[in-house]
Task: structure prediction
Amino acid sequence: MAEIEKQTEQPYGESEDHFAMLSVAAPVCALIIATGALYLGRTVLFPLTIALILSVLFSPVATRLERYFGRLISAALVVLLAIGAIAAIGYFLTIELTNVADQVSGYSDNIGNKLAALEKNTPPWLQHIKEAVSDVQRRMATTNPAPRQPREVMALPVPASLGDSVRPIVPIVDGMLKTLLIIMLLFFLLYSRRDLRDRFVRLAARGRIPIAPQAIETAGYTVGRYLLLFSAINLAYGIAAGTVAWFLGLPSAPLWGLLAFLLRFIPYVGAISSAILPALVAFALFPGWSKALEILGAFVIIDQLAAQFAEPFIIGRGIDVSPVALLISAMYWYWLWGIPGLLLSTPLTACLKVAGDFIPPLGFLSILLGADRVLDDYHDFYRLLLELNPSGAREVAIRYCDENGLERTFDDVIAPTLALMGEERTDGHISGENQRLIIDTTHQLIAELGNRFIKSRVAPSVRVMGVLAPGEQHFLGLLILLELLRKEGVVATFTGENKSPDEICDLVKRFTPDFVFISCVTAECLPATLELVAALRSISSRLTIVAGGEAALHQSTELINAGCSQLCANPNEARRAVRRFILQRAKSRLPFGALLPRRYARAALPATEKAK
Result:
């Protein structure tokens, strides 16, 4: 049985507190610096970001085309496809929006009549509020009279300078240059995507950031697949919205479908925004309110069908981005880059979330942007322990144990918590006080959870003793194993911590166990473990000695030579060893048991063992 957690006993003081504060402040400072760089460098970074997102989006397409046309032609085809699509969308939006504006302007009388009718039907209490506001405005106007208007002076026209003549052309030239820059960047990012990946891995290696090329490839594939499928669902939503608009008789139905496709990239509010403009047009063109309400309701229903049925079925869990993180991210990118940043917020959030999943120094992004975890699992248990709330953590573990059983509680709650604790402590993310609380709470909880189940007894009884190697401090994994064996009817006992070899040998002589499980996780304890195994073997040649733990597994040959019967990598292997012993003893006690089939020998086992 391998020890699960690593409890590094380290003193902590003022220096450790300073280090913990720095580790918390580092991501905040990095976020502030990155925000300033993104804002000040938006002229250059915005085209680069668009090119990067488009390259990630079209990388799966370029990879498929590369099999047939080669890398150069496939990258060129994808770029031409993207240029054609974007140019067509821009031209279509310009023409159609102009036509809609002309149509709506011809129905100004209809709009005025509806607004007048709406004003007549205003409730009395709302009229009183309106009159009160108007009265306050009049009083303020009389108290603070408007300043006197200056006299008008006739000025002679000044000939326009060259700068004034060129100024209207500057935005057009700037837009063309940015577009050409995005096109060239997209081509080279698609053409050199493998070379760029290898360069990034080498650069990360120089910064001592462990990143495998496969991780980057997997991250790119994950984001690309998610964005491609999400775009396909948005396209289907736009087609459905345009069809509904055409069916209800709304002019320029393709325009509303295209706007619905684009605006749905804005998280949560995009679909509603795509329904507001056609609803206002229906309000202006059609008599009554029915068409506007039908348009609004149809768009919302189609969006919910896409969100609740299409996305879970086609995308699945996706990349597990939190809804709150998407909304905050949309506000953040809108503040930085305006409307284009709002449209890019979902792809950017997806890229940052996956980067946090695969790049260890960016792991805080995965925590900030990740979706909400399922309640009552080890995340809640671990969080409550970090909040210094052991009673709340105990309630979570007990509730999970009552619903899912003892073994699943150990596997799904206790073991992941201890593993996460070891990683966080090694990285310096939690203090020694947090670690000590987790260990003490888990120690008490293991026995408490085991006592909630009725324990049968194997007849004749099998006796097991758990032993810590001299100097070893990792004992929770051993306690979990012993508790699972007790539940299966085995008589199991733990010798305790800080026992000398002589004390352990004396306890073995008095308890006379069939099995001795030795936990050796720390490499420094291995010599003492070898001596203990030899001493236990001298007590009885028939004693089954099983060793486990990280250090024991690395020195398995030496332990076997010292007298160890076998080594186990996890608690399940140790439990299987005990079951085989029970089965063999049951067969030996039956008449002609060695010749009987296995199913007859199992009849001598207890009910809990038969179910295994």
